[in-house]
Amino acid sequence: MNAGIVAEAAGLFAVTNVDDTVVLSLFFGRSAGQHGAARRIVAGQYLGFTAILAITVAAAYGATFLPESAIAYLGLVPLALGLWAARQAWKHHRQKDSGEQQPANKQDGPNALHVAAVTFANGSDNIGVYLPVFAKAGAAGITVYVAVFLVLVGVWCAAGWFFATRPATASVIGRWGHILHPLVLIALGLFILIQGGAFGL
Q1: What is the rounded distance in angstroms from the CA atom of residue 159 to the CA atom of residue 28?
Q2: Which residue, among 25, 42, 21, 26, has the nearest Cα to 178 in the 3D structure?
Q3: Among candidates 106, 105, 89, which has minimal Cα distance to 97?
């Protein structure tokens, strides 16, 4: 395996996925203590990023599944999920204030598809960055890039879990996570929509 391509792939992944550590930390922090939550988050992250890679590889060989103009509208996914999370947080707050009993064993943590949708929407603009690199790399080079990217997805998940479980971070997420989580998703959705010029923004 060419060490130069491995280093380039690692650098490209790191530069284009810095914001994912924040989102992952919130996912892990908000679902702390829930059985199987970490597995669902990791599975969702891999599912979403694998979809990004599949579209990029296909496009590098001439197949186009998503028109460039449509990519910006993927910002609606985290925006909708953020608004839903905000509604749930408000509902929970109202129930708590009114003294209503919460249902036992209720799972508020994200499922794998929820995480995958956010990962895909957040990384959709990376397709444009990865595409010219993949197109020039050839089949062997693409294989190396994909392998390195998939390994680093696991590293990113571990980093997100690490930050979420540090006492200081865990304390902040435990106290403010119900507010930060929807705010980050809403901000992410708006950023994708505005950056891509959706709706003439």
Answers
A1: 10
A2: 26
A3: 89
Which distant-in-sequence residues (6+ apart) come within 8 Å of 4 by Cβ?
Answer: none
- Annotate the chain with DSSP letters as a single string: --HHHHHHHHHHHHHH-HHHHHHHHHHHHHTTT-TTHHHHHHHHHHHHHHHHHHHHHHHHTT--SS-HHHHGGGGHHHHHHHHHHHHHHHHHHHHHHHTPPPPTT---SPPHHHHHHHHHHHHTTHHHHHHHHHHHHHHHHHHHHHHHHHHHHHHHHHHHHHHHHSHHHHHHHHHHHHHHHHHHHHHHHHHHHHHTTGGG-
- Environment class of residue 190 by beta-carbon count within 10 Å: exposed (0-12), middle (13-18) or buried (19+)? middle
Distance CA 185, CA 78 (A): 5
List, for residues 126-155, the tens digit of each pLDDT value: 888 898 889 888 889 999 999 999 999 999
Q: Which residue's entry shows tokens 């530069």?
A: 15
Inter-residue contact 121 to 77 (CB < 8 Å): yes
Mean pLDDT, all residues of the chain: 84
Whether 40 and 111 have beta carbons less than 8 Å apart is answered as yes
CA distance 34 to 58: 37
